[in-house]
UniProtKB/TrEMBL annotation:
This is Urea carboxylase-associated protein 2. InterPro entries: DUF1989, UAAP1. It comes from the Bacteria. Residues 8-179 form the DUF1989 domain. Pfam families: DUF1989. Coiled coil: none annotated.
Length: 238
């Protein structure tokens, strides 16, 4: 695999950019306890974006790992999880907010602490949306890479501590041209009393073409149909 580009997102940091289809985006936790909040949009038409309910119900799951795909609200595949050393990533915990961050870790602000102030996922994602010509109304439930949320018999959600070791990796393959938004901020269900965020390395690499025995393509019949919808979309675009 040929490397195309890379960046390290520091604790509390954010990033956004367009990644063309047919690329691998590999995420590596550079310390233990990472959580990277991710949103995906169709780069050609951002009104189409990652849809958490359709992604989970179509694949009969409440967590994400290798073989799963991230579906849009139009039934197409934005990206596939092709490699995963953890086996569980959180699609239901949401993103952190200003109020929640202040309540858990104490009040901070940029005016006093400059770049050492404690950022929230909602703020980071909103800033990157504005840069792309979007706004707060375009926020949707995200994926939290490297985190695990379990549910008990009463339906209550619980954060699983020490789930992510240093060096954990997960790789997305882009099936469409996508706008990617990243926020390296805590999972809102993480009970840690200190701000839990560690650097995450993001690498973009070339991907091999999807062939007929591709693991993600054949993971479920619903995945196959979503891939077919995606291929039809690009066939018609020309």
């Amino acid at each position: 695999m040929n490397g195309v580009w890379q960046i390290t997102i520091p604790a509390g940091g954010k990033w956004s950019g367009v990644v063309g289809r047919g690329r691998l985006v590999r995420f590596t936790a550079l310390e233990e306890g990472a959580n990277l909040t991710v949103l995906l949009y169709n780069a050609k038409d951002p009104s189409e974006r990652y849809n958490m309910p359709d992604t989970l119900k179509a694949q009969h799951t409440s967590h994400l790992t290798r073989g799963h795909v991230l579906m849009s609200d139009n039934g197409r595949v934005l990206a596939s999880l092709t490699e995963d050393t953890l086996g569980w990533h959180d699609p239901i915990g949401g993103y952190s907010t200003r109020a929640g961050t202040d309540a858990r870790y104490g009040l901070t602000n940029y005016q006093e602490l400059r770049n050492n102030w404690l950022r929230s996922g909602e703020e980071n994602l909103t800033v990157e949306l504005v840069r792309a010509g979007l706004g707060r109304r375009d926020l949707v439930p995200p994926v939290n890479l490297f985190s695990k949320i379990s549910c008990d018999e009463q339906g209550d959600m619980h954060f699983v501590p020490r789930h992510c070791p240093k060096g954990a990796q997960v790789t997305l393959r882009t099936e469409m041209d996508i706008l990617v938004l990243l926020s390296n901020t805590p999972n809102p269900l993480d009970p840690s009393p200190s701000y839990p965020s560690v650097p995450v390395l993001v690498e973009v690499l070339e991907a091999e073409p999807v062939n007929e025995d591709d693991y993600c393509l054949n993971f479920r019949p619903e995945n196959t149909r979503a891939f077919e919808n995606t291929w039809a979309y690009y066939a018609l675009l020309g």
